[in-house]
Amino acid sequence: MSSVVERVRRRVPWSQSRMLALLAAALAIGAPLRTMFYLSDVVGDPTLFLALTALSLVGATLLARVLRPPLAVGVGAVLFAGGLGAYILNLSTNPAITELLGDTAALLTGRSLLQIAKVRLWVLSFAPAPVFLTWYFALRRWYVTATLAAGTALAFFALTTDAGVVTTLLGVVGIAATIGFGTLDTLSADEPTDLTKRPDAMTDSDGTERAGGDNDGIDAGRRAVLEQLAAIIVVPAALSQVPITRDSLLSYDDGSDGQTVEGSLFDAGESLSVQGSISLTPEIRYTVESEEPRYWRVTSYDRYTGNGWVRTGNPTPYDDQRLDSPEGETRTLRQEFRAESTIGTVPAAWKPVRYSGEPSVSVSSEGGFQPDGTLSTGDSYEVRSELLVATPDGLRAAGTDYDDATIELYTQLPDSTPDRVAERTAILTANAENPYETALVVERWLQDSKGYSLDVDRPDFNVADAFLFEMDEGYCVYFATTMVTMLRTQGIPARMTVGYTSGQRIDENQWVVRGLNSHAWVEVYFPDQGWVQFDPTPSGPREEIRQQRIEDASSDESSPTVGDGNPVEQYTPSDTSTPAPLTETDGTETGPTETPTATETDTSTGTAGASDTDEGRGLRLPELPSREEVTLGVVALLGIAAGARRSGLSERAYRAVWLRYQRRVDPETDVERAFQRAMHVLAIEHRSRKSGETVRAYLDAIEADNRVRRLAALRERLRYGGEVSEAMADEAVEIADEIVSEH
User: Which residues lie in Low complexity bias regions (predicted)?
Assistant: First the structure.
């Protein structure tokens, strides 16, 4: 057994450089793996992804010594082709190849993978090939080829915008370090493997002392590699500190320090990131003619990532066909919208079925309209909507016969969602007997227990969990996100919706909609009925803030006008109540009947693990740095270390300490160390020993004094006599200290 181990050891020299190269290769493939894990975690349990990744790594490790590289490439191709085939076979639409090509083109031009409905299947199909190839070639010491596989995967995720700044930076550092340390591994292949000897203490095979053991070619290669590593690590680490903003053709900034509510909700995009503190803008966006006020819906989002929302699926062209009505009984509402500023959305009451006007529109995946371009001031369009006519009793009786597609899409939660969210919701809704009552309880509990504020600190982790357990106040996005999450933990399909509230009424059937009317709410699905609106945000405080902002704007500016220059004047006191989602068949609005209340267990003690006491809320612990800040800090330190090594600063610092301080070990080690310190000083003051030059000849050539000769004699006794006393070691160290201090 020992002979086998020895043969393996000789065949696989695990030098320091190779170890560093393999660690860097792990970092290189770890960057895209981190992105894939995040995507898998968002849409479901990542256990299968972790299992596939582990199998790929184990397979690459086992095959690295027995499988030739061309065959390994073939294995990687088979893994990729097999995964791609599995993905295509599971696509629900036809033709699958056309959809796949369309998705691929969209991904390569900046679309996030999270916008693909079956992203988890895509990740499981994609992951094994780059993992296997990267680790296989790294173990084979084909470092450039290994980084090609890892870099291709990372570049793809960078194009899809799924790899963040920190992940991309780590991947680039890993790729650069793999190539750099791999080069060092190759350069040091012929070096002695005894790393315990210093270069200046080596001897030739015949016993003649060598003046130095450094290989000039190896040193030059190391310097070149370290120079590249320093540049590649330090520069990205510094650039990563520069704020990165997302440019947009549409700006909703009102000039204030914080982002506006409108800007935080949507710009007709396919994703929404939950922000921190925001502000309100009173700028007029639309005038609306309608027989009744409604929530003017823009879009909804189905996939929750923990810190934001994504709308999956692809829009389809609208060619004047009538869209599907809700499943239940409906009535028709006509609305006419006129844009009062450049805008990129086409709001409408839910559910819109017909559209006419400019610009042209597409049909989004959830069945609403989205513009193909932007609206300019004066552009107008007309929408006909079919409003759901439902009663509380009808919704209570709707049941839970959801189809599989609805369950899969609208009950999804990140696997990182803490269990305490479901536990708290179950306690709150213990008295509810059906999904409708559950939604009402959650809606009213959030309205009653949480305050409304635009000045909040964005949580570092899961937004819904933080708002439910750690925050006292928030604005509409926080309320809606939390309610959807709570309902989904109970298996109730729900989605987050954004748009505008009804606005300021200025005539019998006319409303002015401003940026400050931007809002987020919740839609819950009921079988044989459709999507029903719920709004967990407290309406009173919200409307007070909005009304105050309108009054402040009116006092600072001239009276705004709409349409053909008509001034904006209040027709009746603003309707601050939430437009009711439920209507009787005769058109009269009605509220829900008797509703179960939240159980007292939660309001008094909460669930296990929740710190909701006054003492807990009053205790403020110092904020820890985020994972991104820690990562960037580590990368910056690595860059500084590489730069110090490249400039020789680290070597000079080490030499300065090594020269001036000698830790006592044993007489033999102490004498040898003292001799080396003295020789280093002599090399600086005179010259280094030549190759093959004996110590005595060297000392004669530089006319060394008696102290140095005495130290050389002590060292010679050590080398040939084999023993030195403690007193001799003390003498040697004292001589070396004197020589160093004089230097």
Answer: 583-611
Residue 228's Cβ-side half-sphere holds a number of Cα atoms within 13 Å equal to: 18
Q: Is the peptide bond before 95 cis (omega within 30 degrees of 0)?
A: yes
CA dihedral for 364, 368, 372, 376, sign (positive or negative): negative
Domain 284-537 in CATH 3.10.620.30: yes
Q: Which residues contact 337 (CB under 8 A, 6 or more apart)?
A: 286, 287, 288, 296, 346, 347, 348, 380, 381, 382, 383
How buried is residue 539: exposed, middle or buried, by Cβ count under 10 Å (0-12/13-18/19+)? middle
The three-class DSSP label of residue 495 is: strand
pLDDT in tens, 553-580: 555 544 455 554 545 554 444 444 444 4
**Beta-sheet pairing, 278-279 with 259-260:** parallel
Is the distance from CB of 645 to CB of 230 less than 8 angstroms? yes
Domain residue limits, the chain: 1-188+221-237, 284-537, 662-742
Which has the closest alpha carbon to 455: 275, 271, 272?
275
Alpha-carbon distance of 385 to 296, in angstroms, equals 11
Q: Crossing angle, helix 128-139 and helix 119-126, to 10 degrees? A: 20
Contacts of 386 (CB under 8 A, 6+ apart): 325, 326, 330, 331, 332, 333, 351, 353
Residue-wise pLDDT for 55-105, tens only, equals 989 988 888 888 888 898 888 888 888 887 777 777 655 555 666 676 677
Top pLDDT among 507 and 554 is at 507
Amino acid at 153: A
* pLDDT tens-digit series, residues 680-700: 888 888 888 888 888 888 888
Surface-to-core class of residue 419, CB atoms within 10 Å of its CB (0-12 exposed, 13-18 middle, 19+ buried): exposed
pLDDT grade, residue 644 (50/70/90)? Answer: low
- For residue 133, give both structure tokens: 């190839």
| Beta bridge pairs of residue 331 | 387
Q: Which of 405-414, 533-542, 558-567 has the lowest mean pLDDT?
A: 558-567
CA distance 639 to 14: 25
3-state secondary structure of 160: coil
- The candidate with the shortest Cα–Cα distance to 694, out of 702, 686, 705, is 702
* 217/491: higher pLDDT: 491
DSSP 8-state code for residue 409: H
Instruction: Identify the CA nearest to 498 among candidates 280, 255, 274, 250.
Output: 274
Instruction: Note the pTM of the prediction, 2 decimals.
Output: 0.65
Q: Which two tokens stand for residue 70?
A: 């061309």
Query: Phi and psi of 108, rounded to 5°?
Result: -75, -10
For Cα atoms 686, 691, 692, give the angle at the middle one, nearest 5 degrees. 115
Distance CA 30, CA 24 (A): 9
Query: What are the residues facing 288 on neighbouring strands?
Result: 337, 511
Q: In angstroms, rounded to a whole number, what is the distance separating the alpha carbons of residues 232 and 521?
A: 46
At 610 the three-state DSSP class reads coil
Which range is least confidently modeled, 261-265, 391-395, 470-474, 616-620? 616-620
- Note if the bond before 538 is cis, omega within 30 degrees: no
Residue that the structure tokens 């992940």 belong to: 167
The residues facing 297 across adjacent strands are 348, 499
Q: How far, in Å, are 229, 422, 485 from residue 418 at the CA level? A: 40, 8, 11
Reduced to 3 states (helix: H, G, I; strand: E, B; else coil), residue 316 is strand
DSSP string, 27-80: HHHHHHHHHHHHHHHHHS-THHHHHHHHHHHHHHHHHTTTS-HHHHHHHHHHHH
Look at the block and give the residue holding tokens 């300019």.
Answer: 376
Residue 723, classed as helix, strand or coil, is: coil
- For the segment 650-654, the average pLDDT, to the nearest whole number, is 75
